[in-house]
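The methods section describes the discrete structure representation at length, but only in general terms. What matters is that the chain and its backbone geometry are given together, residue for residue. For illustration, here is how one protein appears when written out as sequence plus structure tokens:
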Amino acid sequence: MVATDTPDNGSQRAEAHSPPRNPALPAQPTRPVSIYHASDAIGSTPSFTSTTSANEAKIRDFDIAEGDERGISHTDSRYSHMNRWLFLFATTASISSINYGWVLGSVNVPALVIEECADGPETWTNGFPSCIPMSNIMWGLVVALTPLGAWAGSLLSGLAADRFGRKRTLMYNNVFFVAGALLLCTSTTIAQMSIGRFVSGIGCGFAANVVSTYCSEASTVRSRGFLGGFQQLMILTGVFTSQVVSIGLSKSPLWRVLFSVSAAIAIGQTLLLFLIPESPKFLASVGRLDELRSVLQRLRKGLDISLEFDDLVTAADSNTKGAEMPHPTMWQVLSGKTEVDLRHLVFCALFLMLSQQWSGAKGVMFYSTEILSDVFDLSEDDVKKIPTIAQLLTLGIGGIGAVAVFIGMNILDKIGRRSVLLFSSLATTICAVLIVVGSVLEVSTLVATAMYLFNLVFQAGVGFIPYLCASEMLPYYALGSISGLATSVNCLTLFIVSFLFPILDKALEGYLFVPFIVTNFTTFLFGLFMMPEAKGKSVMEVVQEYQGPVRIVAGPFVKRKDPELPPAFSAPKIGE
């Protein structure tokens, strides 16, 4: 979408700091302004004309021109591919996500050794017990305290990232990972282990929000889709790595070393973070324009950053002006009391984050070793023979999840978000049915195979799509508050599922996955009848097409018409 507005101080400020252009070259095309930027300044009423086809053609025909004597290409940097520097910087930031996955996955394999003293009777050595006996309910609570801490961290992460910057916030956040790891690896009581899990969870909550923000703000149009799923890929990498290492560190007292690795990851990342730049959008928002120009040229090496630099400065200036006007409250957005009724889109963003955690996939991640030990009817002597078949199968489940996310990231822009969600949720439902059938009939190979497929199809769609959808469906003025609410819903649902999973395991036994058949099929029905499709559309087009109350918007009985774009798309008019 293109906004037409008159020159202002912001555009003059951008021109003053914009990198010089070669006058011998043809003039650059008119600069499109994203709906996230100038169009959302409260009180402004810019007009729009559709440029979707033009933008797609620009991206499709992108090619790097020869550079000038300084080696700077005159191709628009906004449409560049992923380059090695962007990949390395995003990977460095995403080490926090790897640590997140490590914290989540490290309790799985050694669970029986810690809570049930499967490695032998409790003994004390140098002031530390070999295990910390507790009931299944208490162990479920200890495990669930990490997502509860993540909920607390997610509430604070946005404020910290805006005040200190994305890079510095990731540095400061590593204090939580180090403190949590020290508490866990030196635990002597249930209370200390619980506090350690909660503190580590705070670090996970910060990582969940800040890493995705950094990657999104450092990316280009052509790399945003890949980096959008990058966080989930790194989380699963952390889970898989923790489970590989767990095979050799599950005995007492080596499980303490396993928990301490999180601190080593955090310290190593802190040192590496000194080598990467700050987010370009944050630099623009605080007026550090000389540094912004340097960072952009570092991220887009060999390309012309002039228009991208102008976009960021103009957006920051517009948002500053918009901050002087009243923004709608969360309740006004939820109740539809804005000029554009966002209730359906808000419901979809919240439901997707809910569905990700009620699927039962995190239960598999946390408790697959215990589940498979029961399925294969392992005796106490069998459990002591590390690695057991249950532990080896758990290792495979973690690895296949990372592969699935990579596959999903590469097909998402080809077949659409809704199609991927439909396939993923329906396939997950079928796999849950197979797990129940195999458990009831005591066919251990069927259970193990179905659990593998369950994680594969879940991670390929439902596992990472929720992280993308809010930014693709909601305008800027609603994105911050609703994203925070969606993350809170996600973390609280994970806390509830993590806490109840071992209780349901004992109560339902072979029928453990029956509730997840219902929840996953509900997600399928949501995708069939209510899920918006954002593929190839701007935020404005999605909002115009799906605005209004919660309702059925898709499916075989719904006739759709191409939406007509409004002559103006102004900032929200706050209801009385």
